[in-house]
Amino acid sequence: MAINRSPVMTVEDYFEWELQQERKHEFIDGVVYEMPGVSFNHDFIVTNLIYIFVSCLDRARFKFHTAELRVQASPSRYVYPDLTIVRGRSAASDVSKFNLINPYVVLEVTSPSSEDRDRLDKLEHYYDVPSIEAYLIVDQHRPNAELHTRGENGWLSEEFADLTDVIPLKILECELPLDQVYRDIVFE
């Protein structure tokens, strides 16, 4: 399924238009991208991640949000990550109460129509957000996760592809066992 693109519009027009839409749309530098529906695997992975975070995340220090909340990646880029974790209190932008401005960890589960954007475009967008310290991309078609973390000398990338691997999210004091991330997933 291809992501539908619309003609270029202003940020203000996008905010107003998006409120009237049944489906969510991301906005990148004037172009609107319709968000695809999710598969069973995609939904299971997001649910599995929520279960893991509920069991390990210190909810007094961190809050997590689902894909229902839009993240402001820049004044001209607005996206809907599958999960977003905030350190401290969640903050909204002045321009729209629907825009989270202080994401700390962002997680995306790939979809066939968004995989390239998740691994390339969004990676670059998230690198530019000062509050983001980690970006996790989870593949829904095979056991594979990419963890990108901000380091003193730039971003570091690690890949996890064995179901016995454990993804260390030290900044959250959590570990994500890959076999639990992919629990109940059927690979074709």
Can you give me a brief rundown of this structure?
This protein is α+β, with helices and mostly antiparallel strands. It is 23% helix and 32% strand. Strands 3-6-8-9-10-11 form a six-stranded mixed beta sheet, with helices on both faces. It has a five-stranded mixed beta sheet with strand order 2-1-5-4-7, covered by helices on one side. A two-stranded antiparallel ribbon has the order 12-13.
Key structural traits:
single chain; 188 residues; alpha+beta; 5-stranded mixed beta sheet; 4 helices
How would you characterize the overall build of this protein?
The structure is a single chain. By secondary structure, this protein is of the alpha+beta class. The chain has four helices and 13 strands. A six-stranded mixed beta sheet has the order 3-6-8-9-10-11, sandwiched between helices. A five-stranded mixed beta sheet has the order 2-1-5-4-7, covered by helices on one side. The chain has a two-stranded antiparallel sheet with strand order 12-13. Strand 10 and strand 11 form a beta hairpin. The longest helix is centred in the N-terminal third of the chain and has 17 residues. It is globular. The mean pLDDT is 90.
